[in-house]
Amino acid sequence: MLLEHEGALRLGVFLGLLVVMAAWEMAAPQRRATLPRLLRWSNNLALVALDTVVLRLALPVLAVGLAAWAQVQGWGLFNLLAVPGWLAILASLVLLDLAIWAQHLVFHKVPVLWRLHRMHHADPDFDVTTALRFHPIEILLSMLVKMAVVLALGVPPEAVLLFEVILNGMAIFNHANVRLPRGLDAGLRLAVVTPDMHRVHHSDIRAETDSNYGFNLSLWDRLFGTYVAAPAKGQVGMTIGLDRFRTARDQWLDRLLLQPFSAGAPGYDAGQDAGFVISARRKPAGAFNVRSQPDCPASQRKT
User: Burial level of 163, CB count in 10 A (0-12/13-18/19+)?
Assistant: First the structure.
């Protein structure tokens, strides 16, 4: 029944939340914009349209279709174990969220993948369209990762659809330039990622960028020690984005598409150390002590 209305469900949730959150952040923004909204929104929205076309052309079947095929073939863990449908759906929603969290972390830690992902972080403002701002190559790789997980677990097609709708909706919500009442934010982030929680991840300070990787459940950042409650400079005082990509011209679609292939930070293109150790700022207990992306403010760089 759910799959019969897949298109309407996806489009309805996407457009509904996009309009509601956009209206909210225009009426009561958390932060002032640094660039004209028309410039950023037109190019970010053009990018998501291009991403959709690339996916459709590059892959003959996407995650829902693959899940339906695997179910018929009896492939994947849940199909082999004949796990009850309701349990398979619930477990799938949780495990797919963990997989996306882990993928996000890897895209920060592997330099060649960071080159793709940094376009998302190079947005100098943070609003609903930032949630849609991903390079087509990253979108394609992300879909392949998701499909591999779907095939290995034998995720029911209904669970894949629900997960994708929920994830897209939550990304729009937690990228919105809005402020929730403090008590509501504190209560919600015990379970899910809120705008104030995810905004920390878009900070220009390395210790904050290397935190709060979740898009949906907040559990994983707490569990793996990558949770940071608030930016050091506050939600309004913090700086969003990457110093190298702040001009209006950097936000044009052609520049966004070419950004992964632009010159890297010192040491990167020379084949030397591709990252910088986590800031000396005190990190959460159990946080990953690994090297990461090169695009940090000069004051954060290892010398």
Answer: buried
> Distance (Å, rounded) from C-alpha 138 to C-alpha 134?
7
Contacts within 8 Å (CB) and 24+ apart, 99-102: 99/145, 99/146, 99/149, 100/142, 100/146, 100/167, 100/215, 100/216, 101/213, 101/214, 101/215, 101/217, 101/220, 101/221
Paired tokens of 296: 């940090």
Query: Distance of alpha carbon 231 from its chain centroid, rounded?
Result: 18
Q: Is residue 192 part of a domain?
A: yes
User: Please, are residues 240 and 122 in contact by the beta-carbon 8 Å criterion?
Assistant: no
The domain of 213 spans 61-258+274-300
Task: Tell me whether residue 83 is in a domain.
Answer: yes
Give the tens place of pLDDT for each residue, 111-121.
999 999 999 99
How many structural domains does the chain have? 1
Domain assignment present for residue 99? The answer is: yes
Would residue 105 count as lying in a domain? yes
List pLDDT tens digits, range 204-251: 999 999 999 999 999 999 999 999 999 999 999 999 999 999 999 999
